[in-house]
Amino acid sequence: MSSAAKVTTSSPEEKLVVLEASQASGSQSQSQYGLKFAAAAVSNMTASGVSNPVDVIKVRQQLRTQTPGARGNAFWTVGHQMVRSEGLKSLASGLPASMMREVVYSGLRLGTYEYFKDSIYIASSGSLPKEGLTLKVLAATIAATIGSFVANPADLAKVRMQAYYPKGMPYSNVFSCYVAVYREGATKHPSSPVWGGIRTLYRGVEATTIRGIILSTSQICSYDQVKQTLKARGIMQEGFGLHLTSSLFAGLFCSIMSNPVDVVKVRVMNDKERYKGVFDCVKAIMIHEGPLAFFKGFGMCWARAILTLPVSQLGIHTIVSFIAFERIRSLLGISPM
């Protein structure tokens, strides 16, 4: 489109060549958006497979309702208790639901980010520069809103299957979890069982969407911005080192920004009776547990963990997903993000 705008021709034949080239370029871009969606889904499924044990422990931490200052909720303490009482297989809890969630959620929020970035840039006639943070935030917000809303049922199933049940896991598989949650809502709303079931599957969608927007703007935009800055200043060149460095910063930013909303989301999704909604959950946490409860499950300090692997689930997930995303793009012949 831009090349067509820059070329001035008088011959009808030359104009036809320019138009055909422009259309071919547009068709190629559309196919690349589809490949980017697939690459985002596969890379995030890979990241979820790697980080699932940490994710399970994080969920267990966030579901514990302890008083401020109480002990016994440290990352390693919770993990040790899980393995001792439930076995190593407990660290794989909710993995199928997590994989299903990543296809929809991350496929959309990361896979369509550049599509919305390009679309908004064209719609603004270039008034929003591609290097600017405003365009990136807008694109990430739209992509995350769509992805978070569509993937909420899978997200809810993942949380339910990762929670601790003293009498044993009530769900035989992810599909039985969907059915159980749907019936739960249908029973509570006998006058409109279908609507009640759907409402229950979308329980916590407000927190999920808000978290998705915060996570995506802080994660995707920071990765994009840090990578762009390091390349522009000649500090690093395209490659594994740049991808790792950018993802480390992105993981740190999104972990700090999204953890409070993540705690609320997990509590509301796993709850059946206690909370009336998102704001009621926030109020209850503040009153009974204090503000630090919003950072349960954050993990070890990043300054100490960079030498090995960050214990923050989002940190591990972010590093693996972006490195895999860039690698898959390269294999598919797509330019780097």
From TrEMBL:
Pfam families to which the protein is assigned, alphabetical: Mito_carr
Subcellular localization, as worded in the UniProt entry: Membrane
Keyword list, A-Z: Membrane, Repeat, Transmembrane, Transmembrane helix, Transport
Membrane topology (UniProt): Multi-pass membrane protein
PROSITE patterns referenced in this protein's UniProt entry, alphabetically: SOLCAR (PS50920)
Main location: membrane
Gene Ontology cellular-component annotations: membrane
Membership in a protein family: Belongs to the mitochondrial carrier (TC 2.A.29) family.
Protein name: Mitochondrial carrier
Source organism of this protein record: Neolentinus lepideus HHB14362 ss-1
